[in-house]
Amino acid sequence: MTTRFRRCGHGSGPIHPGDQKAVAEFSAMLAARQRPAPWTGHGGVAVRISERGLERGRPLPEQQPGDGPVALVLIHPDTETSLTGTLHCTRVRIHGAWTTSYRLLTRALAGPDLSAGLKLTI
User: Fold this and answer.
1) What digits encode the pLDDT tens for the residues 15-63?
2) Residue 55, class by beta-carbon neighbours within 10 Å (0-12 exposed, 13-18 middle, 19+ buried)?
3) What does residue 22 show for φ and ψ, rounded to 5 degrees?
4) What does the H/E/C string look like for the chain?
5) Quick one: which of 87, 95, 33 has its CA closest to 63?
6) pTM: predicted TM-score of the whole model, two decimal places
């Protein structure tokens, strides 16, 4: 007996287990993008770098929750290593609290250098 797996919506049978995982991650990313968790001033933050892209940021320990710009450092979504120096970001650029669903949207995960366009967009 052979099992048929559906690819790209074509064919009959169940979706391949590897495809199910990809679909679940993508669906979680879309839901998190549309309804972000509010950022309370503590913990990781998702920062809008470009029109569609988000990066993971960590506020500096001395950062006080308030109305002014947020001093933060962008970090890699998987390795937690610092990618930039201290940036001062307006609160309008903060998308919400960081969740692992956002990692698919980061340029840091794809590998390009982040420092090239940051000064213009943050």
Assistant:
1) 777 788 888 888 888 888 888 888 887 788 988 887 767 888 998 888 7
2) buried
3) -65, -40
4) CCCCCEECCECCCCECHHHHHHHHHHHHHHHHHHCCCCCCCCCCEEEECCCCCEEEEEECCCCCCCCCCEEEEEECCCCCCECCCCEEECHHHEEEECCHHHHHHCHHHHCCCCCCCHHHHC
5) 87
6) 0.70
